[in-house]
Model the fold of this input.
Amino acid sequence: MKHLTKFHKAPIRVIKINRTRAKINLRRTMVVLKVALAQEKDETKEMLAIYGKATQGKASKQEMSIAHAQFFDVLKGIGLGVFAVLPFAPITIPLLVKVADLVGVDLLPSSFSTKNDSDETK
Done:
């Protein structure tokens, strides 16, 4: 607190503003996470419906490719879930994602990916 008085005339106000900004950023991040999880849930339900149709022989090849892509997304999520139970997960998971991007491997499911749709078509 002592060092803040040297730089700011109103250090308490600066602390309150920073705290409010952090709360807003956290809420935004949680909303983005909620939307991504809802999208994954819908895609997984669609995948299970397609696999149900496939057991009866009524699914087309295009539907099966969509279902397989979603199945691989589910496997990616499970793979990252293993690291979530390890100690220092808030450090290791972002580090793994960053290293995987450098190497050229996509670890995140499609709902959590920040790439544009134009990048995926290339």
